[in-house]
Amino acid sequence: MGASTTTAVASTDNNRITLEPLQGRVTVTIPYTVTEDFTPSRQVYDLIFDSGTEVTRILEGTFVVTQAVTIP
Description:
By secondary structure, the protein is mainly beta.
């Protein structure tokens, strides 16, 4: 069953994902301007590679968003 809403999207198109295939590394960066609107709660994510002809889920998991104690 898929999520009913999407909170944030990271992709190579929006420069939030950097791929380094020779190092086997994927870096996901979501800026504060996006995460500041996250509601404190348990969230889920998945990392999907879309080659244009095939879609493969590489990773999935959960994380907890807590209320900030320090405001930048």
